[in-house]
Amino acid sequence: MAQPRVRKAVFPVGGMGTRFLPATKAVPKELLPVVDKPLLQYAVDEALAAGCEQMIFVTARGKGALEDYFDIAGEMVATLTARGKAAELAVLDGTQLPAGDIAYVRQQEPLGLGHAVWCARHLVGREPFAVLLPDELLWEPANPCLKQMADAHARVGGNVIAVMEVPAEHTHRYGIIVPGQADGALTEMTGMVEKPKAGTAPSRLAAVGRYILQPEVMDVLSQHKRGAGGEIQLTDAMAELIGIQPFHAWTFGGRRFDCGDKAGHITANIALALERPDIAPDVRAYLATL
Ligand code: UTP
Q: Which residue is closest in CA terms to ligand 1's atom 16?
């Protein structure tokens, strides 16, 4: 049966980003650059590549710069035009979406990822939708992660969660799936646990910040149940639906950088810089001196 296309992408960007203080005192974490592009732009490009048409940002107080970023920078455009800076103008063009394709909703209190997703319920409506956590940079430019997942979703429908295999000693940091039958990169899910205690993880397959979900998850989130860390967890809401709706984990092809973490962010900058012909020689030369 043909599956409804995933048209809407939700970007929860309401977190405080305390691991990046003091930078995040004034700059939203999602605008921190990897080389020269903000994290959020990588995630939006990924959603566009997967065929999403409507971007929904769940923002918070102090995140106004995010809205400006996707706006037309009138004065800058005028100055660059007057100076004949065609290349720079083309770069700016890449940050713009058609008018009306971006919507913003506020999460008034940082009550957790599940709560942030729930704040988008009226904009999502009753259709499948994607969730992308911009601080997780999933890098596979030839076939971005959400596109891989959308293709899998077109085949199997239901809910599709991106996962990767993590070392056993790291499972307590992630949402971990309880695996059922596997078919290549797709694994049926029979359960999910948020941050299992050391030694209790049901597998080593960890969720990495990309989800295709059915709208019923919003109904579960409406109950506002608190989970790990006292927060409203998306993992818990999904776990309630497993067994009622189909859930598959998609072991994505590509590299993952946890850019919500300082070491992960620096690693991402080095890795992507080494792929850029304009700066790779200098970066490589410096690394060779270490
Ligand atoms: P994190 O766990 O990384 O939290 O959230 P954080 O606040 O962004 O960062 P730290 O840990 O304080 O440094 C994972 C994702 O969920 C979003 C974040 O913006 C991030 O994309 N989130 C989290 C919300 O939108 N609202 C919340 O209440 C919590």
A: 113
Q: How far is the CA of 140 from the centre of ligand 1 (A)?
A: 23
Residue 237 token pair: 């809401």
Q: What is the mean pLDDT of residues 159-182?
A: 95
Ligand 1 centroid–CA 15 distance in Å is 4
The secondary structure of 196-244 as a DSSP string is PPTT--S-SEEEEEEEEE-THHHHHHTT----GGGS--HHHHHHHHBTT
What's the pLDDT at 19?
A: 95
Taking the C-alpha atoms of residue 156 and residue 52, their distance in angstroms, rounded to an integer, is: 18
Distance, CA of 181 to CA of 106 (rounded, Å): 39
Identify which of 11, 25, 29, 40 to mutate to test ligand 1's pocket (most ligand atoms within 8 A of the CB): 29
- Beta-sheet pairing, 54-59 with 102-106: parallel
In DSSP terms, which residues pair with 106 in a beta bridge? Answer: 59
Instruction: Please give the structure tokens belonging to residue 24.
Output: 């995040």
Q: Record the pTM.
A: 0.96
Name the helix (H) or strand (E) containing 177. Answer: strand 175-183
